[in-house]
Amino acid sequence: MTSLLSPSDWPEYELIDSGSGEKLERFGAYTLCRPEPQAVWSPALPAAEWARLQHARFAQEGSHAGAWIRSKPMQDQWFIGYERPQFRFRMRLGMTAFKHVGVFPEQAPNWDFIYAQCRRIPQARVLNLFAYTGGASLAARAAGADVTHCDSVRAVLNWAAANMQASGFEGIHWLLEDALKFVQREARRGRTYQGIVLDPPAYGHGPKGEKWKLEDMADELTRETARLLDPQGPSFLVFNSYSLGFSPLVLRNLVQSHFPASLAAQAESGELFLPERSGRRLPAGIFCRFASMP
Known about the structure:
- By secondary structure, the protein is α/β, with parallel strands linked by helices.
- The protein has eight helices and 17 strands.
- The strands form four sheets. It has an eight-stranded mixed β-sheet with strand order 1-16-17-15-12-9-10-11, with helices on both faces. It has a five-stranded mixed β-sheet with strand order 2-3-4-5-6, with no helix packed on it.
- Helix 2 packs parallel to helix 3, helix 5 runs parallel beside helix 6 and helix 6 packs parallel to helix 7.
- The chain is globular.
């Protein structure tokens, strides 16, 4: 059975509407309109309401890059908080040339899962690969984990470090590195982690121009990463994907192919989605995750 997960009880974020290839979202004080290729239906709200609510709209100029067009005064950068009964952190947002704003809100259920797993594993070592601006790293650090945060883009690492400081945390280990190469080196060293977060993009480049395409690298990446999960005691894995060509079964099959059968048998897989005001659910990626018991 496919699980469906979405953010809940998060006042700082809302998907207001989607349709005609776009989505209208509120991040704290500001409402933004961004491209969304999966929103092939018609918007629930009229165009005039979208125009009334939005502070800025991303106009895509090429296959990925574009420019923001502002319609209301707003800051270039601002903060939102993620607060749960047990933990909280802050993230700086900003409008980039690639439509990202510094957070993937659909990952909130995984942040909760990561925090819970790190709380039950004393002094857990957690490796966050393709870690972006660090929501998963912050959740793990909030639980007291020893966190290694790996990304191939220096600006993103700096952004994540700023989020750590804004959250009042310290001690996350930052790595500017190609994820696969780092995993392979760690495996040769015999190093293991109790928690691994794996969130590879569909395509991209490493810090030295290495080309990355998920379809070509997913099997090797999963195999090499499986070598790093501590075989002794409790552990956990969170594996995400945004590739439109993948289904949750793809991630489950990768996990079953390379992780111990006893762990893979506990895996939960499914879709992440964002609920909108109309009650519709916007697909926002797939996941597979498990947690082993002591």
